[in-house]
Design a protein that fits this description.
Length: 484
């Protein structure tokens, strides 16, 4: 590790974190040059015997080291990793090596980002200085571009329970975290751990094609997309994740999405987002235990309408009722909280439900008075919330062998899909909520199911999978056979 005395606190913290992660890390005195000393020999020696040399980059470091890194050959410079601990420039070689930022973050967030970067470095050989990707610019600076990065492949699975696998979107460089069908139709949207949102053209549902990629994150390989939400008319797309930033895009022209709202408001990762039917109000839930309500037609501090801090642990999911007057939130504290948000600047808590025996992974309104929840206790549940202050259990949806991690509700409120960490998806008829009927049991085939979505007409079901794939099923025939 190369650092200067002014950054010793950061260097000591980094060494401790690296060692705690099982990495042998040292910061020898020769790698902490005093002002005026030539750091080039020490850097060259370090790159000769270390797999990577972490440079604790700050204005103080640049003042002390000068252009020492520019004297390294390509092989040696390719072993440098610049860890910015201050908002400083990255001159010369430092503009072309792998780098990431830790400044401005709370320590728990900085710790996890550091460990993610370690995972990237461990799976990739040291590269030449010119090879690593440049820092990704924020979406406000660079418009989306059409990049055919993910392709539909011939389904590897046969039909199950009368449900046909239409397409498997493979080639994602990282697990897929979220999926949405905008109500305007003809479009599928995914969000992945590589920090990108991808829009697919469904003119031919069996052969979706990549239309556009939107960059959400700004740091290298660290700012996951955690959740997506669309407005009732399909013209707005909300994106949240590890950048601790909320963004809303106008999809009036899906081939050229326009960023219309971008704000920062949480102190930790944002794990959940929901839009009111007209997209004027947005709810977000974070690892900081908070639920925030936003006015998407304002900007800056004026955009935050309310901050709800009743959860005792991180928030995993938020959802608006179809009429936009209620909000449900669920999280790691095993509870679901119901809110009256008819006046979003003065929301009131109406009930707290001990919904599951473990983390609540998902909440979805079926109707204004019927709520679905999914938990790590391997169950999904339906709740009657006709009386907001006294929710009543209606039914349990069981059969998954691991945590139920995803929920989707059809637009006509007659079907629910549940997805789980065991790679399975179940399709349920809830026409009679007290007697749910399982219509189909499916296997995603690509690891844990992180998210599910129905198309507006209910004919398609999509699953965002941890195995770097999105699976698309045709369920129209199966649903028709149950209603005929």
């Amino acid at each position: 590790m190369s650092f200067v005395e002014a950054d010793r606190g950061w260097a000591d913290w980094l060494v401790w974190q690296l060692q705690d992660a099982g990495v042998r890390a040292i910061a020898e005195p020769p790698l902490a040059p005093a002002a005026g000393e030539d750091a080039a020999p020490a850097l060259a020696a370090a790159t000769g015997h270390a797999e990577h040399v972490l440079v604790v980059l700050s204005d103080d470091y640049l003042a002390a080291v000068g252009s020492a890194a520019d004297t390294l050959d390509d092989a040696a410079a390719g072993r440098l990793v610049a860890v910015r601990v201050a908002d400083c420039r990255r001159p010369g070689r430092f503009s072309r090596v792998v780098s990431f930022d830790l400044f401005g973050l709370e320590r728990p967030v900085a710790r996890e980002w550091l460990r993610r970067q370690l995972a990237v470095l461990r799976t990739e050989p040291a590269a030449e200085a010119s090879a690593p990707p440049a820092a990704t610019p924020p979406p406000a600076a660079v418009p989306p571009a059409a990049v055919p990065a993910v392709a539909a492949v011939v389904p590897a699975q046969a039909a199950e329970d009368g449900v046909e696998v239409l397409a498997e979107l493979a080639g994602f460089p990282s697990p897929v975290r979220a999926v949405e069908f905008p109500a305007s139709g003809g479009l599928l949207v995914t969000g992945a751990q590589d920090g990108k949102v991808r829009l697919f053209d469904l003119a031919k549902p069996a052969r979706p094609t990549t239309m556009v990629e939107i960059e959400y994150g700004a740091r290298y390989s660290q700012e996951w997309v955690r959740d997506l939400a669309t407005s009732a008319d399909g013209t707005r797309l909300a994106v949240v994740g590890d950048a601790m930033r909320v963004a809303v895009w106008d999809l009036a022209d899906p081939a050229a999405p326009e960023l219309v709202f971008s704000e920062v408001g949480h102190k930790h990762y944002i794990r959940a987002v929901a839009l009111s039917p007209d997209a004027s109000i947005m709810a977000t839930g974070g690892q900081d235990k908070a639920v925030a309500l936003w006015n998407t037609r304002r900007s800056g501090r004026q955009s935050v309408l309310a901050l709800l801090t009743d959860h005792r642990k991180g928030v995993q999911s938020v959802a608006f009722s179809p009429d936009g007057r209620r909000l449900a939130s669920g999280g790691d504290d095993k509870t679901v909280i119901l809110w009256d948000v008819a006046d979003p600047e003065h929301p009131t808590r109406t009930a707290s439900i001990a919904a599951h025996r473990d983390t609540v992974h998902a909440v979805r309104f079926v109707t204004p008075t019927l709520l679905a929840t999914a938990g790590a206790d391997r169950t999904a549940r339906l709740w009657d919330i006709t009386s907001p202050a006294h929710p009543e259990p209606v039914a349990e949806l069981t059969g998954h062998r691991k945590a139920v991690t995803a929920l989707a509700v059809s637009a006509d409120a007659t079907r629910v899909a549940t997805g789980a960490a065991d790679s399975t998806v179940a399709l349920w008829d809830i026409t009679t909520p007290g007697r749910p009927n399982r219509l189909a049991a499916l296997s995603s085939g690509y690891g844990a199911v992180n998210d599910l979505a129905f198309s507006r007409d209910g004919a398609l079901l999509a699953a965002a999978c941890a195995g770097k794939t999105t699976v698309l099923w045709s369920i129209g025939a199966r649903l028709a056979s149950t209603t005929s």
